[in-house]
Amino acid sequence: MRIGFIGLGMMGSRMVANLQKTGQHELVVYDVRREAGEAALAAGARWAETPADAARQSEILMTSLPGPREVEAVAVGAHGIADGGQPGLIWAELSTSSPTLIRRLHKDLGERGIKVVDAPVSGGIAGAQDATLQIMVGCEPELFEQLKPVLAGIGDKVGYMGLIGAGEIAKLVHNQIALVVAQVVAEGLTLGVKAGVEPERLLEAIRGGAYGRGGGGIGNSIESIVFTRNWDSPRFALALARKDLGLATDLGNEMGVPMPL
């Protein structure tokens, strides 16, 4: 399978490496920084000069980008996917973006014969490294079945969420819950510690109580980052968290769902 991949950042570069490890695909890659593609090129990938060039050479195209602005620019901007994609191209958009945008691109590029799929991923850098990402897919059911074996090369949980846009909705809800819970946990632990309970004992109580046993849970980052004051290895950029919460809030406003938290 000829696969194009646009966006070779912390997530994208690792997903490309895993696709190459399968030995089943020919990879063509593009990033605004050519040096970001050095590892992929050394492993046998070809370099595309533009997103249009990557699309032109691909049967399946994947993008991993910071947000909606970059997704739209790569799709329909100068030398974008719309300029190079041939009828029958499948574009799997892996970024956390806007369901409204992906539905519009699905319509606009669909008129050119390009099949657009939203397939945002969750699992962070570790998941991208180990090919253990959760992938939330929105498209027609038959297209999902066609794409699923390829996505299995970068994630161990490839789930069908519904028609176009459903993947982005699921990802935004996931991130909204995760980020809001993280803030509540931070406030609660601060209260407990300041009121006199040792942090390790407080964490043990939370994990052993109804909340922890009921599946709420608190991740290991509390011990590995907060308790050790290891601030030099952030797991998620604050700017991306703000972007994701903004997209979730926009969706809530669009749906008429109050979201005071």
Notes on the protein architecture:
This protein is α/β, with parallel strands linked by helices and 261 residues long. The protein folds into 2 domains: 161 residues, 3-Layer(aba) Sandwich (Rossmann fold); 86 residues, no CATH class. It has 13 helices and 9 strands. A 6-stranded parallel sheet has the order 3-2-1-4-5-6. A 3-stranded mixed sheet has the order 7-8-9. The longest helix has 29 residues.
Explain the layout of strands and helices:
Blueprint: E1 2-6, H1 12-21, E2 26-30, H2 38-42, E3 46-47, H3 51-56, E4 60-63, H4 68-76, H5 81-84, E5 90-93, H6 99-110, E6 115-118, E7 121-122, H7 124-130, E8 133-138, H8 141-151, E9 155-162, H9 166-194, H10 199-208, H11 210-213, H12 221-227, H13 238-255
Parallel strand pairs: 1-2, 1-4, 2-3, 4-5, 5-6, 8-9
Antiparallel strand pairs: 7-8
Helix pairs in contact: 1-7, 9-13
Q: Return residue spans where pLDDT drops below 50 for at least 5 consecutive residues.
A: none
The profile of the biggest β sheet is: 6 strands, parallel
Cα-based radius of gyration, to the nearest Å = 20 Å
Into which percentage range does the β-strand content fall? 15-25%
Question: Brief description of this entry?
Answer:
The protein is built from 13 helices and nine strands. It has 261 residues and is α/β, with parallel strands linked by helices.
Task: Output the keywords.
261 residues, alpha/beta, Rossmann fold, six-stranded parallel sheet, globular
